[in-house]
Design a protein that fits this description.
By secondary structure, this protein is an alpha/beta fold. The protein is built from seven helices and 15 strands. A six-stranded mixed sheet has the order 4-5-7-9-11-10. Strands 3-2-1-14-15 form a five-stranded mixed sheet, with no helix packed on it. Helix 1 runs parallel beside helix 2 and helix 2 packs across helix 3. It is an enzyme of class 3 (hydrolase).
Length: 265
């Protein structure tokens, strides 16, 4: 099984640039082209939150239009820039979005790897949290199939990254409790996250938690105390997670046109 992960699309209407620089719509088309061109083709694409920049209906409409070009089934997670109601309204055919009550949490059961998606959103806030209800949901789902290889998906990563301005708006509640739950289930193969617009890993609850590059802007690699949080227009990217039945192997890939590939001959 092959899973592509993209994240932090921050969709706005075409030409409506964030901070006067970033035109997210111009970046999503090449991302979709890159995924469609993959051989072997991924079985599904996980889009781990910050789907839109401001959670506005017309941003979801543009997002949907762009994703119609994606020839691979995809699953959407909300991030802190999203609005649950607007997301649900824009994708009424995505039944898994509609079922979670107050939260957009769901299980994807029809692949060799089981996937459990958590909602870390606190409406109108940048940070995330996992309240007892959301943690209980995960614990109950994991208890259903404790021997089946499982991925946990969420927008805010449950660990500190050293990019202090992002850590201040990280998962501010529920991370220790989440780690205790996951530590009880060695069948959790990985915790896949977004939010950081970079690739970062940490050991977590006996598995690995990781973040993924954004499809548009990246966050500057600036550790420690800094006067401000900065973004950088480094090459956008995605991750390709290859499940061969025993372990999950993750490839980091960049989006864009580069010279080659050339044979070594
Ligand atoms: Fe983001
Ligand atoms: Fe985010």
């Amino acid at each position: 099984m092959l899973i592509a992960q993209i994240t932090d699309l921050h969709m706005r209407t075409p030409g409506d640039k964030a901070y006067g620089i970033i035109d997210p719509a111009a970046f999503l088309a090449p991302a979709v082209r890159a995924l469609n061109a993959l051989t072997p083709r991924p079985d599904c694409v996980l889009i781990t939150g910050d789907l839109t920049d401001l959670g506005r209906p017309h941003e979801y409409a543009v997002l949907r239009e762009h994703l119609q070009a994606l020839e691979i089934p995809y699953f959407l997670l909300p991030g802190n820039h999203d609005d649950r109601a607007q997301l649900r309204a824009a994708f009424p055919d995505h039944a898994y979005l509609q079922d979670g009550g107050d939260f957009i949490q769901y299980a994807i059961e029809n692949y060799p790897l089981r996937m459990l998606s958590l909602d870390t959103v606190v409406p109108m806030k940048s940070h995330g949290e996992l309240c007892q209800d959301r943690l209980d949901w995960l614990a109950a789902r994991l208890a259903e199939q404790p021997d089946r290889p499982t991925l946990v998906l969420m927008h805010h990563p449950p660990f500190l990254t050293g990019i202090e301005h992002m850590d201040a708006i990280g998962l501010l509640a529920g991370a220790p409790e989440l780690e205790r739950i996951i530590a009880r289930f060695p069948n959790v193969e990985r915790v896949l996250c977004g939010h950081l617009h970079r690739t970062i890993f940490q050991r977590f609850g006996g598995t690995i938690a990781s973040t993924c590059p954004g499809t548009a802007h990246q966050l500057a690699l600036e550790l420690g105390p800094r006067p401000t949080l900065q973004y950088i227009m480094e090459p956008p990217g995605y991750q390709l997670h290859w499940w061969q039945g025993k372990n999950l192997v993750t490839h980091h890939a960049v989006i864009g046109d580069y010279p080659g590939p050339y044979p070594f001959a």
